[in-house]
Specification:
This protein is mostly beta strands and 130 residues long. The protein has one helix and eight strands, in the order E-E-E-E-H-E-E-E-E. The strands form two sheets. Strands 1, 2, 3, 4, 5 and 6 form a six-stranded antiparallel sheet that branches.
Length: 130
């Protein structure tokens, strides 16, 4: 007798490098949902990029960046524009393109190898316009 596991169908997935690529921008269309897949739980979001709408799995680094930029409630991310950055990395012994969905102002710190959001300048009292 065979044993089956339920899977949730989330619709059409966009293809990396075809439907979206490094330097593109995307609009987040839903608050995402965790989906159990072949390689564990994935955080799947509906996005619109290059006139196409479809699902994309956000990696934890992307989610951490979006939390820093927009807050912990993914419902507040809906409608936000994000930039897509691709970096070739060693993944399980092979160099592969890894795609990140990031706040538009995010930069890659070459020294640390981490994504950073430029800090907002704090106005000094003498610079206030009153």
């Amino acid at each position: 007798m065979a044993k089956y596991t339920k899977r949730v169908s989330v619709g059409n997935f966009l293809k990396k490098g075809t439907d979206f690529k490094d330097g593109d921008t995307a609009i987040i269309r839903n608050e995402g949902q965790p989906v159990e897949g072949q390689y564990g739980t994935q955080d799947v979001f509906l996005v619109n990029v290059n006139g196409k709408e479809g699902n994309v799995s956000f990696n934890q680094t992307s989610i951490n960046n979006l939390i820093d930029a927009f807050g912990e409630e993914s419902a507040t991310w809906v409608g936000k524009e994000v930039k897509i950055m691709m970096i070739r990395q060693n993944v399980q012994g092979s160099i592969k393109p890894v795609y990140y969905f990031l706040h538009p102002n995010t930069e890659l710190d070459e020294e640390s190898g981490k994504f950073v959001l430029p800090s907002k300048e704090v106005l000094k009292a003498e610079d206030m316009p009153f």
